[in-house]
C-alpha cells in the first residue's frame, strides 16, 4: 500500500525503496517488477529516454507472469500502459534535444488497489 501511495505522489525513487528490502528478503518477482516500473518513472523525471525504455522493458518481463491481476493490482492494465510508453520512448530515442522534457509530456499511471483483485494465495501476503 505504501508503494502505491508514494507512486501516486510521483515519489518514484521512494516507492522503489519501500519494496527493495522485502524484494531482497523474499525474492518476489512481482515486487521486482514494481521496482523496475518505479525506476522507469525516475528516468521520466530525469528526462532519460534510454533509461525509460530499458527499465520498462525489464518491468514488462518481470510483471508478465502476474497477468491479469496480482496483489490487488490490475497487472494487465499496468502492462498496457508500460508498453505504450516504452514504444514511444523507443521511437523518440533519436528525437532532437529541443523536445519538451518527458515529465511534461507523460501521463503518470495510476495504480489502484482493488481487494477484488486479490487472489489470496500470494506469498507476499504471508508476512503482512
**Fraction of residues in H or I helices:** 55-70%
Overall form: elongated
Largest sheet: 2 strands, antiparallel
* Overall radius of gyration: 15 Å
Please work out how many helical segments DSSP would assign. 6
Low-confidence stretches: none
How widely separated are the two ends? Answer: 11 Å
Strand order in the sheet with the most strands? 1-2
Number of beta-strand segments = 2
Q: Approximately how much beta-strand content do the residues carry?
A: under 5%
Task: Kindly name the structural category.
Answer: mainly alpha
Helices and strands, with pairings:
Layout: H1 2-8, H2 12-26, H3 29-45, H4 49-63, E1 69-70, E2 73-74, H5 75-92, H6 102-105
Helix pairs in contact: 1-2, 2-3, 3-4, 4-5
3D architecture notes:
The protein is 59% helix and 3% strand. A hairpin with a 2-residue loop joins strand 1 and strand 2. The chain is mostly helical. It has six helices and two strands. The protein has a two-stranded antiparallel sheet with strand order 1-2. Helix 1 packs antiparallel against helix 2, helix 2 runs antiparallel to helix 3 and helix 4 packs antiparallel against helix 5.
Amino acid at each position: 500500500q505504501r508503494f502505491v501511495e508514494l507512486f501516486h505522489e510521483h515519489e518514484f525513487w521512494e516507492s522503489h525503496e519501500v519494496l527493495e528490502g522485502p524484494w531482497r528478503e523474499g525474492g518476489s518477482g512481482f515486487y521486482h517488477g514494481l521496482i523496475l516500473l518505479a525506476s522507469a518513472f525516475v528516468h521520466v523525471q530525469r528526462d532519460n529516454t534510454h533509461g525509460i525504455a530499458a527499465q520498462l522493458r525489464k518491468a514488462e518481463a518481470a510483471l508478465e507472469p502476474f497477468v491479469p491481476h496480482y496483489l490487488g493490482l490490475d497487472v494487465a492494465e499496468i502492462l498496457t500502459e508500460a508498453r505504450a510508453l516504452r514504444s514511444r520512448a523507443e521511437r523518440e530515442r533519436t528525437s532532437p534535444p529541443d523536445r519538451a522534457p518527458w515529465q511534461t509530456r507523460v501521463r503518470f499511471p495510476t495504480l489502484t488497489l482493488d481487494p477484488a483483485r486479490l487472489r489470496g494465495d500470494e506469498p507476499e501476503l504471508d508476512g503482512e
